[in-house]
Amino acid sequence: MTEVTLRNQKGMTSVKEMPILQDGPPPGGFPAVRYARRIPNSGPGGAAVFLVSSLVIGFGFYQVGQGNIHRRAVRAEKIAARQAILPLIQAEEDARFVKELKKQLEEEKEVMAHVPGWKVGENVYSSGRWMPPSTGKLTVDLS
Amino acid sequence: MGGDTPVTTSAVLMSASKHISTKCGEENRAFLNCKREDPNPEKCLAQGQKVTKCVVSLLRDLHETCPKAMDAFTKCMDYYGNEFELCRKEQANFQKACPI
């Protein structure tokens, strides 16, 4: 610039002659920005929402009830099956138990033969109910 | 294996439980009534023997009539721990082949 001024050449003589290059709004300005609330009052009303939700919930409860019925039936089937086979299992165990008990009583008779007035297999309880002997020797050998 | 009595595992007994409750119901009830009166095992040996005979012969008959269906159902019950709900297909086959 100084050279242009001193030597009278073509060009800018001062910064004021630079073209203005600014970042500004487009011609006509920016379009308006909406910042106001807009919450519409349309859509289903309270009664409709209540009706639909109660229908859905009612259907859900119905399904729960059906499921409970099904589960009760399954449990009843299991209990009935166990009831059906219980007598067989108890009868087999009784037969085995009586055989073991006879053996135990024979042993007891031998061991206590020299003791006067000993009743073999005497019930130590006086209630009249039958109680299994608590010697721990009549259990099933599972080893 | 057509004429054997199947070994009475829990799976076999649970598979045949409906048959047992209908065919051997009388013996079962007699045994349980005897037990209710007197729990002494020595007193209910006769009824117990009847129960055992009835159930064992019933199992043998079932195995003769429908061995494949019974074996399939028993195997399924054995695999699933005696859960009826998981063996419905085999149960239906078994009850079709050997009706209660």
From TrEMBL, chain A:
List where the protein spans the membrane: 47-65
Locations listed in the record: Mitochondrion inner membrane
Classify the source by domain of life. Answer: Eukaryota
Pfam families assigned: GRIM-19
InterPro entries linked:
GRIM-19
A GO cellular component entry from the record? mitochondrial inner membrane
Function in brief = Complex I functions in the transfer of electrons from NADH to the respiratory chain. Accessory subunit of the mitochondrial membrane respiratory chain NADH dehydrogenase (Complex I), that is believed not to be involved in catalysis.
The name of this protein is: NADH dehydrogenase [ubiquinone] 1 alpha subcomplex subunit 13
Organism whose genome encodes this protein: Riccia sorocarpa
UniProtKB/TrEMBL annotation, chain B:
Task: Write out the GO cellular component annotations.
Answer: mitochondrion
Metal-binding listed as a keyword = no
Compartment list: Mitochondrion
Q: Which domain of life is it from?
A: Eukaryota
Alphabetized, the UniProt keywords read: Disulfide bond, Electron transport, Mitochondrion, Repeat, Respiratory chain, Transport
UniProt KW rRNA-binding keyword:
no
The principal localisation class reads mitochondrion
- Briefly, what is this protein's role? Accessory subunit of the mitochondrial membrane respiratory chain NADH dehydrogenase (Complex I), that is believed not to be involved in catalysis. Complex I functions in the transfer of electrons from NADH to the respiratory chain. The immediate electron acceptor for the enzyme is believed to be ubiquinone.
Family membership noted in the UniProt record: Belongs to the complex I NDUFA8 subunit family.
| Entry protein name | CHCH domain-containing protein
Q: Which organism is it from?
A: Riccia sorocarpa
